[in-house]
Amino acid sequence: MNKTRRQLIRAGLVGGTIAASGVLTGIAPAGSAVAAEALAQPKAKKSLRILMLGGTGYIGPHMVSEFLRRGHEVSLFNRGRTNDDLFPDLETLLGDRDGGLDVLKGKQWDAVVDNSGYVPRHVADSARLLASAVSHYLYISTISVYASFAVANDEDSPLGTIADETVEEVTNGTYGPLKALCEKRAREEIGDDRLTILRPTYICGPGDRTDRYTYWPVRSMRGGEMLWPGTPEDPIQIIDVRDLANFVVDCVEEKITGVYNTVTPTGSYTIGDLMHDSIAVTGADMTPLWVSSDFIAGQEFEDAIPIWSSPEGETRNVASVSGDRAFARGLVTRPPRETCRDVVSWWRTLPAERQQSMRAGLAADREAQLIATWHQRKI
Ligand SMILES: NC(=O)c1ccc[n+]([C@@H]2O[C@H](COP(=O)([O-])OP(=O)(O)OC[C@H]3O[C@@H](n4cnc5c(N)ncnc54)[C@H](OP(=O)(O)O)[C@@H]3O)[C@@H](O)[C@H]2O)c1
Known about the structure:
By secondary structure, the protein is α/β, with parallel strands linked by helices. It has 14 helices and 11 strands. Helix content is 36%, strand content 13%.
């Protein structure tokens, strides 16, 4: 195999996938010369100048690649710590969202995509500085902004709040309210007529560093009896990172402003579907063991069950967020089996040591112990 093809496979640029990072793989990803060759094709009607705040993490590279594929120019702004060799031919402006934005001063772009804003002060600072430098600001938020999942949310639902708005530590508890505050700060600086806010649910696909989705097909591959949560009918919702990237570029090209949840259609996907996808994609010889949400709560392992949430109580609507507004503006979500297939293909390219350190889901010994407890309980 020639070097270019090997690089493409490592970077996930063949087989219809675009993996995010050398940081994940520990292998230098393909340079942009290679990427440009692989991605050349549709040219946008008008080439736009795009600034990415971030762009070298997990979701950013998928967006950058889609912008380039459609013929746009991209500048990156980051600290140079994450995958700094990912796009060697792109302009990279080195700085820090925390007080180090000077390198952006005096420059102009058509649009900025902010996918690295977690702290309201950082978003306020960049939005204020860029308000006169761009005509469009797109902020990547999250469905975690909603105040409650005991109700089914659309974009007009109440958002979570934080008592002390000066808090900047991002934890499981502050993440959602801080992102809601980031949205507010962007709105104050940019104004609704030039601002797009996207609220993705679990962003799944090649390059995902969290392993929250990846756990399911990869654990399935190990075979044997496998613990699955709740019932096969329990709903789940995801967004493929490439579908999100496509919609981001659509929003920028068509100047679609407003707030949009980016999710798979409500009721279209279940944890049972994910189980079938996992078997179909991997050919796993796996026997599912469905354990009740009461058992999961009683044994206190909800946190080790990614993507699925109990369809009862406070989490009962995590997977019924409305994406209708985005679908009406052109968001297209691919069949989830394609996501599963491409995640598995990407995972297989990772070094053995990375494959041995799954970052989400149940560890093998814990799962075995829970399975034993479940069987004893049923006797
Ligand atoms: N993963 C999900 O399921 C999910 C779901 C909903 C929403 N989201 C949203 O998606 C985004 C996460 O995307 P991601 O995982 O690809 O990116 P990320 O890890 O949050 O950000 C990485 C990018 O931002 C740059 N960066 C980080 N801190 C910086 C700083 N202080 N100053 C300048 N640049 C900085 C990094 O480069 P350097 O390190 O070189 O600076 C890198 O390019 C977030 O907005 C998150 O809220 C994620």
